[in-house]
Amino acid sequence: MDLSTAFGQDAVPKLAQNTPFLLDTAEEFLKQIRQNETGVVQICAANSFSRFPFMATAEYLYSPLKDSEKEELWSLGQQSLALMGSVLAGGVFRFEVSRWLKPQVYKQLAQFEKDWVNLNERIVQARRASSEPSATVIVQAWEAMEAGIISKKEMIQTLSEMLFANLDVSTHVLSWLVIFLAKHTDIQRELRQEIKTNTKSLMELCGKKDSLLHRCFLESIRLRPFTVFTIPERSPQTKILGGYIVPPNTSVVVDTLSINHNPQFWGDDCTEFNPRRLQKLPLTDLRYNLFTFGFGSRKCLGQHFAEAMMKAFICQLLVQYEIGLPITDNKAGIDSGTHRKDTWVPISNIHITLSSLEDN
Ligand code: HEM
């Protein structure tokens, strides 16, 4: 499989190219949120913002989407998340026999796959008939498939991973970054200042690795990686890891939380949100001490796009709003917040307050 040729080097996400699109999309999204609102509003960060990373990724892949296409995608996303419950339950669902033992779920999966292929084929057909078909990522990727660079199954599953598997992942990462900034108002103020100083060059700011914006992003993802253990991987060969012999086909997971919260590297305040700590650390030290987008050949294909998406959203959010925590949550602390139990990534239920800076 050559995913990077189909979606990567040429077609996909180069940070500098995508940031203007992401900044505009974030601005538009936030405008919609405040349409009916005046004064201070209280919202659940995850619920209110989850459509942004989903729709931004979708519009990047498919070019501007009609409202009906957006709704169809969103509805398929919800079906995919429901089916993910069975994937995580494992057991019988790992084997073909589930077709007979769990016919209802099997039927739902078959219907989902059919609808998903169908929607993609319709969109490709429509974009090919448009004035600039080759400018669309999905058309380029489809051409790679037709040229035999990637199989149809791999293409369809990768698209599904980009959009649906990432719905909870991106929601989790974005909402925690917002929540930490809502809690740490001093850092929020400093970050807003950095954004305002760079108003004319937000694109460059989003691409920088030595900015407070970047440090806030890393510190947030350090404290709340999207899973506390990685998705299992196994090798058909014997491996030696840290002096231990790992027999072939043994599932191995990485304990991300113990890397990201390791007090020996991160210090006694390792569970505190303190982006300033990253200022002193060389990026090379982070290589083995921070889990963010995975390692090696399974590393996230959308890393640069995801990073730009989160940063563009924060830039637009902080330009428009002062964010805070409702008094009750502030007293109780964000760690006492509850989580949704019906998602594959534990999505926080924490609420934040938004006060429009234009009202001041
Ligand atoms: C902040 C948000 C995100 C985080 C933290 C994240 C993290 C990860 C991680 C850790 C993996 C490796 C999973 C494994 O062990 O198999 C992964 C895989 C992947 N991610 Fe992301 N991801 C994010 C957003 C995105 C976005 C927005 C896209 C698409 C535009 C994307 C596309 C993919 C794909 C296609 C894979 C599978 C790569 C492969 O198996 O070759 N991700 N992601």
Features:
360 residues, mainly alpha, Cytochrome p450, 3-stranded antiparallel β-sheet, 17 helices, 57% helix, 6% strand, globular, binds protoporphyrin IX containing FE, monooxygenase, Cytochrome P450, iron ion binding, monooxygenase activity, Cytochrome_P450_monoxygenase
Summarize the structure.
The chain has 360 residues and is mainly α. Helices cover 57% and strands 6% of the residues. Heme binds at residue 300.
Any overview of this molecule?
This is Cytochrome P450. GO terms for molecular function: heme binding; iron ion binding; monooxygenase activity; oxidoreductase activity, acting on paired donors, with incorporation or reduction of molecular oxygen. Keywords: Heme, Iron, Metal-binding, Monooxygenase, Oxidoreductase. Belongs to the cytochrome P450 family. Its cofactor is heme. With 360 residues, the chain is mainly α. A hairpin with a 2-residue loop joins strand 2 and strand 3. The chain contains 17 helices and five strands. The radius of gyration is 21 Å and the shape is globular. Helices cover 57% and strands 6% of the residues. The chain has one domain: Cytochrome p450 (Orthogonal Bundle), CATH 1.10.630.10. It has a three-stranded antiparallel β-sheet with strand order 1-5-4. Strands 2-3 form a two-stranded antiparallel ribbon. Bound molecules: protoporphyrin IX containing FE.
